[in-house]
Design brief:
An 8-stranded parallel β-barrel has the order 1-2-3-4-5-6-7-8, surrounded by 5 helices. It contains 11 helices and 8 strands. By secondary structure, the protein is α/β, with parallel strands linked by helices. The radius of gyration is 17 Å and the shape is globular.
């Protein structure tokens, strides 16, 4: 982490878990654990049906609420989709875009990721843009080429002045929900490469201000080691974000000097 130049952000991704009533209970328990000193930003990205409960539950707290997806059209005959304006009207601040599960199960592509990034930024949302390789791709030695393609595709046409609102989350697909975690060195190598890719697009000043998270089975046991690396500025947390005490342990790890 490097707090001098950029935010440290711990974001939870609940995926398809928790009801609105469970969200309310989570908010009450988690707020009671929040430290009085503020170092890192905390974001909870929850299912669409939980957003109103999350916004109410975390009102007047230091926790921001995010969505797990959006559609790139403003409105129309798109049954089952949710627009950026709908999220903004709920007081949502962040949105996850391009998660590997969206790519794998729901046909997300680099093209649709780019459209969604532009839509989010135009609406005033901060996109958490996910990139990452499969185990097969890592073993083939094409990790960096793939990451560069995903980053450049996602950011195509994004003006420099909006990059401060973009968060990049490196999530190796082989580590998501598997209990496997990239080593600190593996994660740091890719996060440093992501920053170098952004530097090639926007220059050093903007690149050093972009928050780059690690996702992929970050938990209370490995968070401190992962976050000790210069270019890892937080985490996109899956399973551990469903339990208030575990998520708070990761927040504490991010708050260490």
């Amino acid at each position: 982490m490097n707090r001098r130049y950029r935010k440290t952000i711990i974001a939870g991704n609940w995926k398809m878990n928790k009801t609105p009533s469970e969200t309310k209970a989570f908010a009450e328990e988690f707020k009671a654990l929040l430290p009085k000193t503020k170092w890192c930003d905390v974001v909870l990205c929850v299912p669409f049906v939980d957003l109103p409960a999350a916004v109410r539950g975390f009102k007047d707290s230091r926790v921001s609420v995010g969505a797990e997806n959006l559609y790139f059209e403003k409105s129309g005959a798109f049954t089952g989709e949710v627009s950026a304006d709908m999220l903004v009207d709920l007081d949502v601040k962040y949105v996850i875009i391009g998660h590997s599960e969206r790519r794998q199960y729901f046909g997300e592509t680099d093209v649709t990721v780019n459209k969604k990034v532009h839509t989010a930024l135009e609406a005033g949302l901060s996109p958490i843009i996910c990139v990452g390789e499969s185990l097969e791709q890592r073993e083939m030695g094409v990790t960096m080429e793939l990451i560069a393609l995903q980053v450049k595709s996602a950011l195509a046409g994004v003006p420099a002045e909006q990059m401060r609102r973009c968060v990049i989350a490196y999530e190796p697909i082989w580590a998501i929900g598997t209990g496997k975690t990239a080593t600190g060195d593996q994660a740091a190598e890719v996060c440093s490469f992501i920053r170098a890719t952004i530097r090639s697009l926007y220059g050093a000043r903007i690149a050093r201000g972009v928050t780059i998270q690690y996702g992929g089975s970050m938990n209370p046991k490995n968070a401190a080691e992962l976050l000790s690396h210069e270019d890892i500025d937080g985490g996109l947390i899956g399973g551990a974000s469903l339990k208030p005490d575990q998520l708070m342990e990761i927040v504490h790890a991010a708050n260490q000097d």
